[in-house]
Specification:
The chain has twelve helices and eight strands. It is of the alpha/beta class and about 290 residues long.
Length: about 290
Amino acid sequence: MTIALYRLDLYIPKDNRRPCPVVAFVTGGAWIIGYKAWGALLGRRLAERGILVACIDYRNFPQGTISDMVSDASQGISFVCNNIASYGGDPNQIYLMGQSAGAHISACALMEQAVKESSGQPISWSVTQINAYFGLSGGYNIHNLVDHFHQRGLNRSIFLSIMEGEESLSRYSPEIVVKESSARTIALLPRIFLMHGTDDYSIPSSSSRTFVDVLQQAGAQATLLLYEGKTHTDIFIQDPLRGGRDPLVEDVFSVIYADDATCRNAASAPTPRRLVFEWQLQLARWISPF
């Protein structure tokens, strides 16, 4: 079942007789074309396995810049944390996930919240309400990506406008924020899983590898999951369209249900059917700018 609310869509499992684990998802879109419906495939796949998914919307450039996007995502996370029980979600099993630009935005929101919370500032949701963070195909040090994006077609001046100027790049680079954070801030962070395809040419997998290293050196619980031969969109779009069990859903599923054998067995679902022909996926992969 799908429910559209202001600024987010909910994908609710058919069997919600008991409170469901929840994934708050922030979609990608190069900070320019992001839209909550991009998470439909993921939402449906996880809902089939007993997980409630909230796909959070946010303003795109030029309607907003990075601070607006992070604020919108944080408001969506706050709504999920404080209201999801009314929709059958378990408020004690909330997971945060972002893909591509959404991985960057949600990581910024998570770090910003941890900094606020550790310094005693007012908050509307707590980092401790998040059981784990999943970052899919994200970039976490924006300094290192300006030239890369320019070469890929995202003009340097436009990207710097999105990021509110060169002076803001460190503030919106979660990797740098982690390096500059106190032990108290790091201690608040949930488990972090960074997921990346090794053939991703939109955002290199080294972005996730480096961020995991920085997190681990800071004392955070961080794990790197690499998908051999997968591109920026394979594990998020093409694999779900192929049907069958796809690696991303299985990895997310194994983390969420790691300690709950009853739920793990109850949430088994028929193998998803193929939605498009393979030649169509190969053609899309060949012409896709991502």
